[in-house]
């Protein structure tokens, strides 16, 4: 399998890369995101063969379609090491549970940091360690988090040989539990950097440093954000796992609702659907930061500035510049790299928006790719959390509540709707208390975490300052 950039120019021969190259590289040198040259197609016989496999074996089957430069036996061992009952708390790894007629929750948050990011990050940590050992190299991971990516990355990479993590986060904009999960880590290879700004500032810094090709090369900079294809690819697996649990035959279709800020999680659903998984609708659920909902309703993609990015009770979705959205637009536009570059590099930087409403491709987006969208506000989150707890004795977190609210608007008779659960409620305890008047359950290993000593550096929203900090701490 070869990989291309979303900004590859039709005027030049394509620069193909292999999987292990893009694993360590992150952003493409032209500023684009990597995608496979084509999506492998999964037929009825393959779906039948995969139905009933363990999660680790299913992961191996899916990943094998995209990775041909790691020996099969090694890849199988990495998957088996990653997806265990011991790490994820159940044999199914991502158990599906019915909530109400036609609507299910797929539990993705039973990993080490209680968020869906663990599903991909645990794999990424093992892939990084494997490939770096094979090359005899080191990697300095630069990341940005709005809450869950950071802790998932740090818990996956702590103690890993040859890997350092420099994780940026918006100062004061994560929940106390999320901050404590990250900042309490004392491992020498983990560096937390609180940025004076919002998540989009952190994400811009990661892209700016990654686009400094000389610095990236000299300091071996890689990424774990969902701009890294390997992370998104790992997320494709749980769409197949959810489908198999919700259906008994390949003739059935399902829909997925995905709480979304950076478009990575739902983009993995787009990849699974493009491979042939029988998905009816991919429902994008946003919060008050509704840049994606606006696009799917109007065709206008309008990035908000820091001042217009709302601070909400589902903070991991407080994003107004959805990095992974470029991957979908590239597919939507017939994989035209020149047009994609013109939109995301030229127009967005100069105008802050682009408009595809008149493009014939946009008019068929829902029909061709299954995308629909909706939004959920703070009052909706509280009402949904209360309703789900009162009627089903089930406590859900704020982001999952956004998903359930929007999913209920899109459920169709005869088509199971699967909401991807994003985190456990304890990560957003303040809002749970507001909704229910009680604290959510806390796993014993996280008792008293907020009181632990914190190790974090406060820096301005400035790529140069981040580079200086990396230089000072790489030795």
Describe this structure as you would to a colleague.
The protein has 475 residues and is an alpha/beta fold. It is 44% helix and 15% strand. The protein has helices at residues 19-25, 44-50, 55-64, 72-82, 85-88, 117-135, 148-157, 176-183, 199-211, 213-218, 229-246, 264-275, 291-298, 325-332, 337-351, 360-363, 365-369, 378-392, 398-408, 429-436, 463-473, and strands at 3-5, 34-36, 96-100, 103-106, 139-144, 163-170, 190-196, 221-222, 254-259, 279-286, 300-302, 353-355, 371-375, 417-420, 457-460. The chain has a six-stranded mixed β-sheet, sandwiched between helices. A hairpin with a 2-residue loop joins β3 (96-100) and β4. α11 crosses α12 (264-275). It is globular. The model has no long low-confidence stretch (mean pLDDT 95).
Topology summary:
Layout: E1 3-5, H1 19-25, E2 34-36, H2 44-50, H3 55-64, H4 72-82, H5 85-88, E3 96-100, E4 103-106, H6 117-135, E5 139-144, H7 148-157, E6 163-170, H8 176-183, E7 190-196, H9 199-211, H10 213-218, E8 221-222, H11 229-246, E9 254-259, H12 264-275, E10 279-286, H13 291-298, E11 300-302, H14 325-332, H15 337-351, E12 353-355, H16 360-363, H17 365-369, E13 371-375, H18 378-392, H19 398-408, E14 417-420, H20 429-436, E15 457-460, H21 463-473
Parallel strand pairs: 4-14, 5-6, 5-8, 6-7, 7-15, 9-10, 9-14, 10-13
Antiparallel strand pairs: 1-2, 3-4, 11-12
Helix pairs in contact: 3-4, 3-11, 4-6, 6-7, 6-11, 9-21, 11-12, 18-19, 18-20
């Amino acid at each position: 399998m070869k990989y291309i950039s979303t900004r590859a120019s039709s005027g030049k021969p394509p620069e193909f890369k292999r999987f292990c190259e893009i694993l360590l590289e992150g952003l493409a040198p032209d500023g684009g995101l990597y995608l496979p040259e084509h999506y492998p197609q999964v037929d009825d016989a393959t779906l039948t063969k995969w139905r009933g496999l363990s999660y680790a074996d299913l992961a191996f089957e899916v990943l094998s379609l995209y990775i041909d430069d790691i020996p099969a036996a090694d890849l199988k061992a990495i998957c088996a090491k990653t997806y265990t009952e011991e790490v994820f708390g159940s044999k199914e790894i991502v158990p599906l549970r019915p909530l109400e007629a036609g609507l299910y929750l797929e539990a993705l948050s039973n990993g080490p940091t209680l968020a869906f990011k663990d599903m991909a990050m645990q794999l990424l940590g093992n892939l990084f360690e494997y490939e770096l050992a094979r090359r005899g190299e080191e990697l300095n991971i630069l990341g940005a988090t709005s809450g869950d990516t950071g802790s998932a990355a740090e818990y996956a990479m702590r103690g890993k040989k040859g890997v350092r993590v420099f994780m940026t986060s918006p100062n004061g904009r994560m929940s106390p539990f999320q901050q404590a999960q990250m900042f309490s880590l004392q491992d020498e290879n983990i560096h937390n950097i609180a940025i004076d700004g919002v998540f989009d500032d952190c994400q811009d810094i990661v892209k700016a440093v990654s686009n400094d090709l000389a610095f990236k090369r000299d300091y071996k900079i890689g990424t774990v954000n969902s701009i890294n294809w390997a992370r998104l690819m790992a997320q494709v697996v749980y769409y197949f796992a959810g489908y198999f649990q919700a259906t008994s035959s390949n003739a059935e279709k399902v829909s997925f609702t995905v709480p979304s800020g950076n478009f990575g999680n739902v983009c993995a659903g787009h990849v699974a659907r493009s491979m042939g998984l029988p998905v009816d609708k991919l429902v994008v659920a946003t919060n008050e930061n509704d840049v994606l909902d606006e696009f799917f309703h109007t065709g206008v993609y309008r990035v908000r500035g820091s001042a217009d990015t709302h601070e909400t009770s589902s903070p991991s979705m407080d994003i107004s510049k959805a990095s992974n959205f470029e991957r979908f637009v590239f597919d939507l536009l017939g994989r035209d790299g020149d047009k994609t570059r013109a939109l995301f590099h030229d127009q967005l930087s100069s105008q802050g928006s682009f408009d595809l409403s008149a493009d014939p491709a946009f008019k068929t987006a829902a029909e061709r790719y299954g995308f629909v969208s909706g939004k959920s506000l703070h009052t909706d989150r509280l009402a949904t959390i209360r309703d789900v707890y009162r009627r089903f004795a089930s406590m859900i977190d704020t982001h999952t509540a956004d998903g359930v609210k929007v999913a209920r608007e899109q459920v169709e008779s005869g088509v199971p709707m699967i909401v991807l659960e994003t985190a456990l409620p304890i990560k957003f305890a303040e809002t749970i208390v507001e909704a229910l008047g009680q604290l959510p359950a806390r796993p014993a290993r996280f008792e008293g975490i907020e009181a632990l000593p914190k190790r974090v550096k406060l820096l301005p929203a400035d790529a140069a300052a981040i580079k200086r900090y990396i230089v000072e701490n790489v030795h």
